[in-house]
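anyone seen this seq b4? input:
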Amino acid sequence: QVQLQESGPGLVKPSQTLSLTCTVSGVSITTYPWYWSWIRQPPGKGLEWIGYIAHSGSTYYSPSLKTRTSISRDTSKNQFTLQVSSVTPEDTAVYYCARESGGAYHWGQGTQVTVSS
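predicted toks r here
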């Protein structure tokens, strides 16, 4: 059974880089046909898709976040990582990692990240 677990700092200062890791168990992140996504939900708002890294290692980002976002992976640890640079308080959200294929998502539990000085 696949499990995803987010980890990383819960508090980030403005202008710094937010970095979160998703550790996956139960399936290799290199296995076709899975896509490994990051999604966030700001307080009082809906879900916002950030981007993914595919089983092949290719990446794709939301146009609104593309210039500040990077997703990478460590296949030896079966982890993938999100980095968002130059954060502002508007980046405060619950961040989720998820496995996706054909529109079906399997979610991690989410982790709260607050951007504040």
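The chain has no helices and eleven strands. Residues 92 and 103 are 26 Å apart (CA to CA). kinda curious what u guys think
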